[in-house]
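[step 3/7] inverse_fold.run input=structure_tokens len=440
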């Protein structure tokens, strides 16, 4: 179960540099209407995100698509960017994906998320992979995402170049997108459906950066053998206080939103998320998009920054402790104590660290996480502590839903729409125009 402690984020807990207690109290009061709005949307079923934890009808198609992808496949490339990819990546990391040293030893099919459009990387990958046993998942909510379309075209061309017959091309693909609208070209379906590619339908009421608990995130998770039911059950735990009509102080996501709102109002314009587990490293990338794209509007918002403990104690701690007090830190710890390799007593003595004897690496990491929180506090830095005992599907689902609810509630209290992204659309349109004009 996700535990949250805010005491060391406030002036009463850390002194000057913390968030003023009266500013936090004002933010708690201001969150009440936002929480009531969210509760009303849940009751009216007008915000589909809130219905996902209890949804089961879409799980069988997800499992069937995952089984089809697994058949005779050595590699599966997930083609998509932003919300079409980051949610799947943070779930995949529960299996060791994206974790230094482990990815190369994962069982087949090996899953690769090709989220950044780099011509040299993608070309080299298509040349290196055994294309006859490689499959592709093309994800775009609208069906018009340029990166996904170009990657899919390149994959089709590479498969043809490898001698794959036309009537077998569809076997290599799985599509995931919204249904086509009458009278309007749906580019991804127009590209793939003539090849016989099956499609899962992207939830029309859930945007990309909130789609981790839809088939967008669950398909890669199921492909990797994760328990997708447990993911949603964990998400239900974070949502439960909202559905039960609890107040702000009894709803962890609402309290987190109030803390962030108070931080914004008192000049803390940077929000840092620092988990202490490799399996949560990619969570920070998913969260950064969620936070930045949802709240960076009308001249408002805070800059999200991802860090990873304990490694970033060595690379960022100097700034965090001796730089400006303009940040709200969220440290996410895991029950690491007693886990991992044990430290040999003789070797510990040999290096002059007798106190290491009999301890485990997990003991050190647990101590480092606790020390980081206390060091922030001792240096007058506003720090919130989150904690889970295990990093598994249930706890990860709870963490993901907590942050999505926290983001939505913060947006409501700020007076911005946390579900649109007008500035992003402008850049997409310009990029397509420049491509057509041969500029770049």
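[step 3/7] decode complete -> sequence:
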């Amino acid at each position: 179960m996700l535990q949250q402690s805010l005491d060391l984020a406030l002036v009463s807990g850390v002194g000057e540099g913390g968030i003023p207690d009266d500013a936090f109290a004002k933010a708690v009061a201001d969150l009440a209407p936002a929480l009531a709005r969210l509760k009303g949307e849940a009751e009216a079923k007008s915000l589909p995100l809130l219905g996902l934890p209890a949804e089961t009808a879409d799980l069988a198609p997800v499992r069937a698509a995952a089984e089809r992808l697994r058949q005779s496949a050595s590699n599966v490339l997930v083609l998509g960017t932003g919300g079409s990819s980051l949610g799947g990546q943070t779930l995949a990391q529960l299996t060791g994906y994206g974790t230094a040293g482990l990815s190369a030893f994962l069982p087949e099919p090996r899953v690769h998320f090709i989220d950044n459009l780099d011509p040299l990387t993608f070309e080299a990958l298509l040349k290196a992979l055994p294309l006859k046993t490689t499959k592709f998942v093309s994800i775009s909510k609208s069906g018009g995402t340029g990166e996904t379309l170009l990657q899919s075209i390149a994959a089709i061309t590479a498969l043809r170049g490898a001698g794959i017959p036309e009537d077998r091309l569809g076997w290599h693909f799985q599509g995931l997108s919204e249904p086509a609208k009458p009278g309007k070209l749906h580019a991804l379906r127009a590209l793939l459906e003539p090849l016989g590619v099956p499609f899962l339908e992207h939830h029309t009421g859930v945007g990309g950066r909130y789609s981790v608990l839809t088939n967008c995130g669950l398909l890669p998770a199921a492909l990797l053998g994760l328990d997708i039911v447990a993911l949603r059950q964990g998400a239900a735990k974070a949502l439960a206080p909202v559905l039960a009509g609890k107040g702000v102080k009894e709803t962890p996501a609402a309290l987190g939103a109030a803390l962030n709102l108070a931080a914004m109002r008192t000049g803390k314009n940077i929000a840092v998320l620092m988990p202490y587990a490799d399996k949560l490293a990619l969570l920070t990338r998913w969260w950064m998009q969620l936070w930045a794209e949802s709240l960076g509007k009308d001249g408002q918002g805070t800059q999200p920054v991802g860090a990873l403990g304990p490694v970033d104690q060595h690379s960022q701690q100097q700034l965090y402790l001796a730089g400006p007090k303009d940040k709200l830190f969220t440290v996410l710890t895991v029950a690491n104590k007693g886990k991992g390799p044990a430290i040999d007593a003789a070797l510990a003595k040999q290096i002059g660290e007798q106190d290491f004897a009999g301890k485990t690496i997990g003991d050190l990491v647990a101590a480092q996480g606790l020390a980081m929180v206390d060091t922030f506090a001792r240096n007058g830095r506003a720090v919130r502590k989150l904690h889970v005992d295990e990093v598994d599907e249930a706890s990860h689902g709870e963490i993901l839903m907590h942050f999505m609810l926290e983001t939505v509630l913060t947006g409501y209290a700020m007076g911005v729409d946390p579900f649109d992204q007008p500035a992003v659309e402008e850049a997409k349109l310009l990029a397509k125009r420049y491509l057509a004009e041969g500029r770049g």
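[step 4/7] annotate
The radius of gyration is 23 Å.
The first helix runs from residue 11 to 14.
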